[in-house]
TrEMBL record:
This is Transcription factor TFIID subunit 8 C-terminal domain-containing protein. It is found in: Endoplasmic reticulum membrane. Residues 150-179, 258-338 are annotated as: Disordered. GO terms for biological process: vacuolar protein processing.
């Protein structure tokens, strides 16, 4: 059953085709009537040749617009099967209407004002040459064409989601059933890879990547259809876009055969991952950087930020927190305790006592050396004592 938008397009196409038929009839009838009244002879060679040469492409475009825009209905019930392509869409369809309007104007104007009006028909090839130069010849040989404004916006903010992604996100938040197949596909693929659960933030991130991939594939299919002169992408355009995205037809067939054997009831629900155990309380030296910079923050904010530095705040929430700082940061060296005043006094007394003992030992040694000692070796060794005093220890050999 056709929806409201399809019925609206079908009604607009019927009105456009009816107006096209009336315009073809009125424009050609006016050409012959006005030429019969004001521009005799009726079948002059030059004007008639120009009329026939311009009438042929007009008929071709008329048949083309009628074939693509005519709605198809059920013969018995009259139900709408296909509304046809929208004849008011921009692009090639709009150019077809412009060529038909210019041809009608030149035909009626030449019969009313003169044959010089046919020079206005050169607007069509002139505009076509301008588009060919700006789209193909200029960028290919002269490189004078600047980037499109849409590309500038995308380059300025490549991470911003497109309008289609925003619509899909809004549908997912509202619980739209059209978003459930995507979530089901993600759950099946994760279970095939061996995952038993996942956090909601991880599921949302994967879903955004899937939506972005589907959006890029659709945009590429539309671009391929526009390059081929079609207003809507066909199945071949979609397959070609998938191949450009490293997804071949054989992979699609393999997935289709594998999923066809699995019933929906046999696929278990993908349960969210269990909550992690609460991290132990940090030590006194493990204060978070966020709490040191902003001491007025609440306990909730400190608990949410944990001990992640500011440069790692963009990481997903499902990743574990950093270990305590004392496990990877070098702590300061411990300093020796300062001695007290009483301890210094005791050490000074000990040093003075040692000094006095050493002085007494030195004095006793000097006194022992000054006393005369009997030389025990005088009778054995052949030497004699020399010097003015006999007590001196200066000796020489007695030869």
């Amino acid at each position: 059953m056709a929806n409201a938008s399809a019925k609206k397009v079908a009604a607009q196409n019927e009105v456009a085709i009816r107006n096209l038929q009336m315009g073809m009839l009125i424009a050609n009838a006016l050409y012959w009537i006005l030429r019969l009244l004001f521009r005799r002879p009726l079948l002059a060679g030059g004007p008639t040749s120009l009329y026939i040469l311009t009438f042929i492409p007009t008929v071709v475009l008329y048949r083309h617009l009628t074939s693509i825009g005519l709605p198809r209905k059920e013969p018995k019930t009259g139900a709408l099967i296909s509304p046809g392509e929208d004849l008011n869409q921009p692009g090639i369809t709009e150019w077809c209407w412009d060529i038909i309007y210019v041809t009608w104007g030149c035909a009626v104007g030449s019969s009313l004002l003169g044959n010089w009006v046919w020079w206005l028909y050169l607007v069509i090839p002139g505009y076509a040459g301008f588009k060919i130069y700006t789209k193909f010849v200029g960028p290919m040989f002269f490189n004078k064409s600047g980037p499109a404004p849409v590309e500038d916006t995308t380059a300025a903010d490549p991470s911003a989601p497109s309008k289609r992604q925003q619509k899909l996100q809004q549908r997912a938040e509202k619980g739209d059933p059209r978003v459930k197949p995507q979530q089901r596909l993600i759950q099946i693929q994760l279970r095939v890879e061996g995952f038993k659960g996942a956090n909601q933030s991880a599921m949302d991130a994967i879903e955004q990547e899937v939506v972005s991939y589907l959006n890029d594939t659709y945009e590429l299919a539309v671009a391929l259809a526009n390059n081929s002169g079609r207003s809507r992408p066909s199945a071949q355009d979609v397959l070609k876009a998938c191949e450009d995205g490293d997804l071949s037809v054989q992979d699609l067939k393999r997935v289709m055969k594998r999923t066809a054997k699995v019933s929906r009831s046999s696929v278990p629900m993908f349960k969210p991952a269990p909550k992690r155990r609460r991290s132990p309380e940090l030590l006194g030296s493990d204060e978070s950087s966020a709490g040191e910079e902003n001491p007025d923050t609440s306990k909730t904010e400190k608990k949410d930020s944990s001990n992640k530095p500011r440069t790692l705040k963009h990481l997903p929430g499902q990743l574990p927190d950093l270990p305590p700082k004392h496990s990877y940061m070098r702590t300061s060296t411990t300093t020796a305790p300062k001695p007290s005043l009483s301890l210094l006094d005791q050490q000074l007394e000990r040093s003075m006592l040692v000094q006095a003992s050493l002085q007494s030992i030195v004095k006793a040694t000097d006194a022992a050396d000054s006393t005369p000692q009997h030389d025990l070796l005088t009778e054995v060794v052949n030497w004699e004592t020399v010097g003015p005093q006999a007590t001196e220890n200066m000796k020489r050999w007695n030869i």
